[in-house]
Structure formats: structure tokens, C-alpha cells
Amino acid sequence: MAVSTEIQAPRSGRIAPEYTRHGRSKGNFEMGAWLFMRLSGVVLVVLIFGHLFVNLMVGEGVHAIDFGFVAGKWADPFWQVWDLSMLWLAMLHGTNGVRTIINDYAEKDGTRITLKTILYVASAVIVVLGTLVIFTFDPCPAGAAAELLPSFCQA
């Protein structure tokens, strides 16, 4: 009995023609996306651990986190940019990862396009809303009823 040393390609002959992909992604885009995942991952580790350290270890720690803590933190442009960077990088990093999973597992073009459209719309909505919250957050809005305002607001 002869032993064959030839290894079959994965999925060889198992994919029906209607499921084969016709348009391939550009190699440069995929290489850029791969590189972005590595670099953004490193930056996110620094941003997240800095965020956790300041929120949980500095001052009174977790016991100090309340509405006033967030209001005070977001009054400083440094923390607005820090949190904005964390939001944008996390969303782009996660969206790129899910995009890769969709490309790997969605076999029909229509399914892939639908899933990626939902992904991009959801990511854009979260980024836009998160950015608006960070830059328009006002703990003491003018004209609000005094009983609804936090104790540190001037009535």
C-alpha cells in the first residue's frame, strides 16, 4: 500500500460555485488593517490601563466614582481627548476585528454585505453618540429644575 504525501487544500471542492467570492480585497488594505490591529492594540492597552489606574487607584478609588467624578473629569480637555481616543480606537479596533470574522465566515456576497453594513452603521452611531456625549456633557444645564441638579451645581 502506497502512502500519499499530498495534502489536500482546505475546503477543496466543497464550496458550491454560487458561494465563491468574485472580488478579492486589495492586499494593501488588508495589510494596513492587520498593522492597525497590532498598533491600536498596543495603544489601547496604555489607554485602558491609564483609565483604570486613574479611576480605581488614585484618590478614593472606586468609591469616588459618581456623577460628580465624571463631570469633573470631563471638564478637563485632557481627559476628554483621552476618553475620546479610547472610544474611537476601541470601536475601530473592534469593528475591524468583526469585519475580518465576517469576511472569513460569511460565504454569500449578500450576507457579507448585509452584515458589514449593519456593523458599520452600528459602529458609526456609537462613535458619533459617544463623541457628542464627551464634548457636550454638562452636569449643570442652564434652566434645569434645582431639585434635578447635582449638589455641586449652583442653583
From TrEMBL:
This is Succinate dehydrogenase hydrophobic membrane anchor subunit. It is found in: Membrane. The keyword Zinc does not apply. SUPFAM superfamilies: Fumarate reductase respiratory complex transmembrane subunits. Gene3D superfamilies: Fumarate reductase/succinate dehydrogenase, transmembrane subunit. The lineage of its organism: Bacteria, Bacillati, Actinomycetota, Actinomycetes, Micrococcales. Keywords: Heme, Iron, Membrane, Metal-binding, Transmembrane, Transmembrane helix. The keyword Protease does not apply. Its main location: membrane. The chain crosses the membrane at residues 35-58, 78-98, 118-137. InterPro entries: SQR/QFR_C/D (IPR034804), SuccDH_FuR_B_TM-su (IPR000701). It comes from Arthrobacter mobilis. It comes from the Bacteria. Pfam families: Sdh_cyt. One of its GO terms (cellular component) is membrane. GO terms for molecular function: metal ion binding.
